[in-house]
Amino acid sequence: MYYDFVIVGGGPAGLTAAVYGLRAGLSVVLLEELAPGGQLMVTPEVENYPSWQKISGWELAAKIAEQATAAGCEIRHEHVTGLRVTDRGPVAETAAGTYEAGAVILANGARRRKLGCPGEAELTGRGVSYCAVCDGAFFRGKTVCVVGGGNTALEDALYLAGVCEKVYLIHRRDTFRGERRLADAVLASEKITFLPGTSVAAVEGERRVERVQLTGTHAGPLAVDGVFVAIGLAPDNGAFAGVVPLDEAGYVAAGEDCRTGVPGVYAAGDTRAKAVRQILTAAADGAVAATLAAAELHARH
Questions:
Q1: From the candidates 134, 184, 247, 257, which is the catalytic residue?
Q2: Calpha distance 200→124 (Å, rounded)
Q3: Which position among 135, 156, 225, 285 bears the catalytic label?
Q4: pLDDT in tens, 150-166
Q5: N or C: which end of the chain has fewer CB within 10 A?
């Protein structure tokens, strides 16, 4: 089937691109494996998005998705498995079929990085989690650790401090990478203990997480009931390798104009190589990609 725009991913970048494409009078389908919203769905609170002093991530995601669907966006819950470019234009492939397009906008975001240590994979879902908002309630009154030092780790630690008895924040550096406001709140919390200069070497337990083995400043075993991993994002662009250029880290090599260099293919949001990954910059990418793609489509006709 043919659409003017095929958008891969339903986060802020993809949803914004859909709105701009529809306002340009184009037919748009958005392919999203899960619920629209992307990383917003696992963000407890958003305090740096214009017009909202404070709003939950899932609420903001719902509002953006509602705007897109009200404009006429068709959302299909399908996982894109491949991308190819033909003489007639780009084609996105899913298990359910193929989507021919005037333009494809890759807005598939990025996924949480993994520790890569022994025990992590075996105990994922049994104490190892990558989403504090999703799984925090299962650890009410228990002791957990958060691994990381950026905004996500700080936010996760603060969120879990409201649910758990004790939270250890483990970071391999001595200082945080996140916002000062969040760092100050973490250090002021009586429920959070910061373990700087420390890394997780292994996650251990028989049927569930029982402890982590630490290396560095606070080396040794640490008894915890849960491990929340928040060490950054990793792109998931394997399906597009060989079709669009990727940088060494696996992000799509597209500039501020969101062009990939492949005719009819754009990259917006966290999936592309960029210096700042925020909700606002993802939405801006979606607007840029859709506006330029629409102009090129109109020029062809």
A1: 134
A2: 15
A3: 135
A4: 999 999 999 999 999 99
A5: C
